[in-house]
Amino acid sequence: MSVRLPFKYDRRFTAPLFITGILLGGHISFGILEGYEKTLLAIAAAIVVEVVLSKLVRGTWPHLASAYISGISVGILIRTPYFWPFALCSALTITSKYTLRFRERHLWNPSNFGICAMLFLAPDAVAHLSIQWGNNLWAMLVIWILGSIIIWRIKRFHICATYVVGFFLFAWLRTMFTGDSFLAEIAPITGPMYQLFVFFMITDPKTTVRSKVGQSLVAFGIAFVEMVLRMGEVVHAPFYALFILGPLALLIEMGMEARKKSANPESTDAPVPATPG
Q1: Which of 8, 47, 157, 216 has its CA 20 to 30 A from that of 125?
Q2: CA–CA distances in Å: residue 99 to residues 93, 108, 110, 122, 246
Q3: pTM, whole model, 2 decimals?
Q4: Are 96 and 204 in contact (CB under 8 A)?
Q5: End-to-end alpha-carbon separation of the chain, Å?
Q6: Where residue 261 falls among pLDDT bands split at 50, 70, 90?
Q7: Cβ–Cβ under 8 Å, residues 60 and 54
Q8: What's the rounded Cα separation, in Å, for the pair 52 and 90?
Q9: Torsion of the alpha carbons at 246, 229, 224 and 219, rounded to the nearest 10
Q10: CA distance 185 to 20
Q11: Residue 19 pLDDT > 90, yes or no?
Q12: How far is Cα 69 from Cα 21, in angstroms, rounded to an integer?
């Protein structure tokens, strides 16, 4: 006999619940937050700007899961003694969703854009989270297992896996130039910053190319660009790598699609087959 829940679960809440788990686990274990007030401010600013812009631009009330993810990501990733960068970063993040578009598609992952903008425009006031999990591998393993299950269910695990493989490969290559140990080179990926980067930023459906092969190539390319930036001692290498390569990949894809349509204009009228599953 099946049991019916008194409510229907909205799958869009899965990612917010997971990212909240990262925040609570990281803060309780390692104190990754400077204070709950700043994170709450970032979340509130993201939600307010999302509601206002959605009503002004679209005339509709938005689903707030995306704004919550953006706000909590800013609250986790931004490091500053001030309060204003949290509100400003969230505002930039959400505003980019409505303004930085081409052919009705986002060009940048919103959180990535907001954080990169703050790191570039206010380097004296803002830094990013750089805490690792220390020697507590269980915290990292729990997050990675749960995150992998969630990403697998939405069929985007190949993006995370490709990036991680690329990160380890290029970390090994860096050891030949830096003289550092392999463990030292891969240490950053054990931090909460990278959990958010890998599971949420590079897998964002609205800012990734459409094909699985293309998604994997871009993920590998991000790891490569990150290596190049790290070799140049760029502190914020992963964020800047996605900032550079993500929009470039989208523009290339849109250009290829436009060329294909111009070569075969009748294809736009053909019925689109249903996706299996």
Answers
A1: 47
A2: 10, 11, 11, 21, 17
A3: 0.84
A4: no
A5: 26
A6: confident
A7: yes
A8: 13
A9: -30
A10: 28
A11: no
A12: 12
- The residue behind tokens 């993500």 is 246
Question: CA nearest 112: which of 46, 201, 191?
Answer: 201
For 238, 248, 264, the CA distances from 173, given in Å and listed in that order, are: 17, 25, 44
CB 236 within 8 A of CB 225: no
Give the least confident one: 88-92, 241-245, 257-261: 257-261
Specify the amino acid at residue 254. M
pLDDT at 214 over 90: yes
Q: What are phi and psi of 122, to 5 degrees?
A: -130, 60
Give the residue carrying structure tokens 């401010």: 41
